[in-house]
Amino acid sequence: MADRSAPLDVIAASLRRERARTGLSLSEVAKRAGIAKSTLSQLEAGSGNPSVETLWALSLVLDVPFARLVQPVRPQVRVLRADEGPAFRSERSDYVTTLVSSCPPHARRDLFRVAAEPGPPRRADPHALGVVEHVVLCAGRALVGVTDDPVELGPGDYIVYPGDVPHIFQALEPGTRAVLVSEHC
Fold first, then answer.
1. Rounded CA gap, 170 and 168, in Å?
2. Is 5 helix (H, G, I), strand (E, B) or coil?
3. Which end of the chain offers a freer environment for a tag, N or C, measured as fewer CB atoms within 10 Å?
4. How far apart are CA 167 and CA 57, in angstroms?
5. What is the reported pTM?
6. pLDDT band at residue 79 under the 50/70/90 scheme
7. Closest C-alpha to 118, from 136, 140, 137
């Protein structure tokens, strides 16, 4: 006979993980799902016998697909080689950004590789309210940040600045390379 405890362990871990992600208390999730707090506590402890209705209610409250609660999390490994990915060129400067990783569900960020050459700066109009950009310079030198007060960066330097105001990236040396994370708040 198959081991029936394994699905309960998966459900328990999934409930704990997803509840932590939402920042909701045990009481609040139980209340919103219309179940007893003790029932949710038992499920998170790996005991109890959840009905499909209970799991559906919890998936709705936690804003996740039903399957995310009942299937084990499998690590996803993805490799993107240096010359792969959709690249976008600037019209006004020698600046290319390549999308490395788009924002997955329930996350709020995009990850880009930047390749830039000396010349006119890449001037960016303000993005949506609350956007924050993080840049790590990998090679070369660049002026990066808010248009009115950019900062000179060298290899290994990191800057974070509001992306919802005008900002620039200007390569100061040939072969300037960076990683940019656009965080959507």
1. 6
2. helix
3. N
4. 44
5. 0.54
6. low
7. 140
